[in-house]
Amino acid sequence: MSDVLNRLAELLEQRKSADATTSYVAKLYAKGLDSILKKIGEEATETIIAAKDGQRDAIVYETADLWFHTLVMLAHQNIQPQEILDELARREGLSGIEEKNARPKD
Q1: Number of structural domains the chain divides into
Q2: Residue 78 belongs to a domain with what CATH number?
Q3: pTM value?
Q4: pLDDT tens column, 33-69
Q5: Which residues contact 44 (CB under 8 A, 6 or more apart)?
Q6: What is the spatial distance between Cα 51 and Cα 80, in angstroms, rounded to a whole number?
């Protein structure tokens, strides 16, 4: 799985310098973080609707869109997918309640 994420991360990094008229991802970067976040929200909503409807193929398709746009956001913020995988690995075997209680309080 991390191979796919790493390849996508490399591609998304390359798209930062691509022409926004020929690259969808470059166009998202050019529009800025708010547009990227809006797209994530749209994809999250579509994923929820697909799951609620029990449409397996739609769930897979919409989740792929959601993950992709989340990767765009991470790249925009200069965060590598491996950082997320490392955090998930750190949480492995922890109670969700314990993990949440251990987070720094704002």
Answers
A1: 1
A2: 1.10.287.1080
A3: 0.86
A4: 999 999 999 999 999 999 999 999 999 999 999 999 9
A5: 66
A6: 28
